[in-house]
Write a structure and sequence with these properties.
GO molecular function, one term: ATP binding
CATH superfamily of the largest domain: P-loop containing nucleotide triphosphate hydrolases
Strand content: 15-25%
Membrane topology: Peripheral membrane protein
Keywords: ATP-binding, Helicase, Hydrolase, mRNA transport, Nuclear pore complex, Nucleotide-binding, Nucleus, Protein transport, RNA-binding, Translocation, Transport
Number of domains: 2
Bound molecules: adenosine-5'-triphosphate
Distance between the termini: 38 Å
Radius of gyration: 22 Å
Number of helices: 17
Protein name: RNA helicase
Domain Helicase C-terminal: 310-474
Number of strands: 18
């Protein structure tokens, strides 16, 4: 579940100044380079410090796609996958040259007849959206006027921003499919009279789509595909799972159920397997989940106030690219936005506290580059794809309240999704987590162990070095982004 309202940050009395102080009970130690590493465990890249030159090498997308160990690897072309020529034209217009690994593996399973349910997992930014959108576009029947106006596929996402984003992928990929219409079903503020849904593809949030079916403005009888994006989030906790189940139960029994996410914790996967019975599955091991192109770092802050000062310092370094700052609560987002704005900085903020139309305006401004810094909560932790994001800041370590232990625990999934807003499809990005006390350090340590990944320390006593490091990474991100577009 979204932990948007979770409070973070422990008592400042037990704050830490050095990570060594916090390391006592944890099964990890700090390496000489200052990275969080697990004792004796095999690591993806040992001993990476800030001086390393990993990012001097400009990696080409075509090289990544030729490397069998890379999530973007594939041996096939989109033509080999048997897609409609009009969809291939749409993909070419989007400059998609080759499928990624998840697309290559998932599409034959998704598009096979008779249709089978599907549960797919792959790392953030590896093209899951295209995988399910291509299946949807391949399965709908646009051969008659009547079918063009009959809902045939429903795609559900946890937030309006993600639903709108998926909608634009449907439009782009299906641009050459004559008669394709799309309905975005997200909450509207003013109580409007519900209009009949006359689009073949519906993308929306589960509450709104469920209401449309219940009020009989969306006829579900011809729906053949149901997709849940961010499926682990949609099927966990309270609220969303009921809404998703309600939608599914109103659809024909023959509907193909398709679930995708970068993360599927075991308990949720078990439920997912019931939600999508007898599904074909593609899954990843926990240690495979982090994306190599995302450089994970942390900063020791002596206090909450120092977090803010470090943020402002960091922001001063950001002359290029866009960044997202994740905080634990709506109140924290509002507070940081207020302080930074009062000091003359241009920042935007998006949380569940603001109304739909305003949310749309903020995310659109961020996508277009008009706003370069976005302060947000977990509401935007998942799925949002803005290729220019070169830096993610976890102002607060993501945590959830565990009702069994009655303690706050690290929110592993949310950490992964948050940092995954950068480093999209082979690009390089930086994710910096602030820790202001022993508790936060312990949580980050647990996250590092959980994913068997390095989280290196940034030395804030040397801001020139911090700047050098971040600029170098961002420069390469830009070079790669340019390459990906030109390719
Ligand atoms: N085959 C491809 N060739 C080039 N670019 C691609 C291809 N497939 C996807 N992309 C691009 O990669 C980016 C990431 O894709 P997408 O948003 O689908 O990732 P995702 O796997 O759903 O990530 P997340 O888990 O964060 O939701 C998008 O900008 C998309 O346009």
């Amino acid at each position: 579940m979204s932990s948007e309202n979770t409070e973070t940050g422990g008592s400042l009395a037990d704050r830490i100044t050095k990570p060594e102080e916090a390391a006592q009970p944890a099964p990890t130690t700090e390496s000489p380079e200052g990275s969080l590493v697990e004792d004796g465990a095999s690591k993806k890249s040992q001993g990476s410090g800030l001086q390393e030159t990993d990012y001097d090498v400009e990696v080409k997308l075509s090289d990544l796609q030729a490397d069998p160990n890379n999530p973007l690897f594939s041996v096939k072309s989109f033509e080999d996958l048997g897609l409609d020529p009009r969809i291939l034209k749409g993909l070419a217009a989007m400059k998609f040259r080759k499928p990624s690994k998840v697309q290559e593996r998932a599409l034959p399973l998704l598009m096979h007849n008779p249709p089978k349910n599907f549960i797919g997992q792959s790392q953030s930014g590896t093209g899951k959206t295209a995988a399910f959108v291509l299946n949807v576009l391949s399965r709908i029947d646009l051969s008659t006027e009547e079918m063009c106006h009959t809902p045939q596929a429903i795609i559900l996402a946890p937030t309006r921003e993600l639903a709108r984003q998926i909608g634009s992928v449907v439009n782009d990929m299906g641009v050459f499919l004559e008669g394709l219409e799309l309905q975005i079903s997200v909450p509207v503020e003013i109580a409007q009279r519900p209009k009949r849904v006359t689009a073949a593809v519906v993308v929306g949030t589960p509450g709104t789509v469920g209401e449309q079916i219940k009020r009989r403005v969306l006829n579900p009888t011809a729906v053949r595909v149901l997709v849940l994006d961010e499926a682990d989030n949609m099927l966990e906790g309270q609220g969303l799972p009921d809404q998703c189940l309600r939608v599914k139960n109103m659809l024909p029994k023959t509907v193909q159920v398709v679930l995708f996410s970068a993360t599927f914790p075991t308990e949720v996967r078990l439920y997912a397997e019931k939600f999508a019975l007898n599904a074909n599955q593609i899954s990843l091991r926990q240690e495979e989940l982090t994306v190599e192109g995302i450089k994970q770092l942390f900063m020791d802050c002596n206090s909450e106030e120092e977090k803010y000062n470090n943020l402002v310092q960091l922001y001063g370094l950001l002359t290029v690219g866009s960044s997202i700052i994740f905080v634990g609560t709506r109140a924290a987002a509002a507070e940081i936005e207020k302080r930074m704005t009062a000091e003359g900085h241009t920042v935007a903020s998006l949380t569940g506290a603001i109304e739909g139309a305003q949310r749309d305006a903020v995310i659109d401004a961020f996508r277009s580059g008009q706003a370069k810094v976005l302060i947000t909560t977990n509401v935007l932790a998942r799925g949002i794809d803005v290729s220019t994001v070169s830096l993610v800041v976890n102002y607060d370590v993501p945590v959830v309240f565990d009702p069994r232990s009655r303690h706050r625990e690290p929110d592993y999934q949310t950490y992964l999704h948050r940092i995954g807003r950068t480093g999209r499809f082979g690009r390089i990005g930086v994710a910096i987590t602030f820790v202001a006390n022993r508790e936060e350090w312990g949580w980050l340590n647990d996250i590092s162990n959980h994913f068997a990944c390095h989280i290196d320390r940034l030395d804030t006593s040397d801001w020139d070095e911090v700047e050098r490091m971040i600029k170098k990474t961002i420069k390469n991100t830009r070079a790669q982004a340019r390459f990906a577009v030109e390719q």
